[in-house]
Design brief:
Blueprint lengths: L19 E7 L4 E10 L4 E6 L2 E4 L6 E6 L2 E10 L2 E11 L3 E6 L2 E4 L14 E4 L3 E6 L4 E5 L2 H7 L4 H10 L7 H14 L1
Parallel strand pairs: 6-12
Antiparallel strand pairs: 1-2, 1-5, 2-3, 3-4, 5-6, 6-7, 7-8, 8-11, 9-10, 11-12
């Protein structure tokens, strides 16, 4: 789908539709400042604007980090239903284990009217935020679905982590609670 077609569709494929100031750091530590950037959640790409024209940051670019306003993104490999993919993740908490969030937007096709059902126009629909963990030295982000996933990835401090979760009545469905767990784990190491 062409970005020009987005205007006629309900919702938005972007976290923030407006381009914002930011910078890019490459893997060879080059800093590219003064950029105008935005994240396209639907296509999972970073776009930049130059002379009022939008461009896509190539997956071939040796990217380390992208900062857009106050959000820092890292491009990582992750497992999906279609196999291993590359995607952008927002860094929530950094350390021996890094916590990431991923805000996904799906495209819902228009549904024609029939019988007693009214026509429903096409729209972009934001999905619930997903959380991923990546251990230091790993290149793959792992999806966190429940407490078992967190404990499995933090197995070297399993007893301490479980005790911390239970004593503080933390829910692994809440981003703030997952962040507290990861911060606690990183302080143990």
């Amino acid at each position: 789908m062409d970005a020009n077609q987005y205007e006629s569709i309900d919702g938005s494929p972007y976290l923030n539709k407006q381009f914002e100031k930011g910078f890019v750091i490459s893997k060879d530590s080059l800093l590219y400042t003064g950029l105008i950037l935005r994240y396209n959640n639907y296509q999972d790409i970073i776009e930049f604007q130059k002379d009022d024209i939008s461009y896509e940051l190539s997956n071939q670019f040796p990217l380390l980090y992208v900062k857009i306003k106050d959000r820092i993104y890292e491009r990582l490999k992750f497992k999906s239903k279609e196999g291993d993919k590359l995607g952008y993740f927002q860094i929530i908490s950094d350390g021996k284990v890094t916590l990431y969030s991923k805000k996904k937007v799906n495209f819902v096709e228009a549904k024609p009217a029939h019988g007693y059902v009214e026509y429903k126009p096409a729209k972009f629909k934001a999905e619930p935020i997903s959380y991923y963990l990546k251990k230091e030295g790993s290149y793959t982000a792992n999806l966190i679905k429940n407490k078992k996933d967190i404990v499995s990835l933090l197995s070297d401090k399993k007893v301490e982590v479980l005790t911390f979760i239970n004593e503080n009545k933390l829910k692994t469905s809440k981003g703030e609670d997952i962040s507290r767990i990861i911060d606690y784990y990183n302080k143990l190491n």
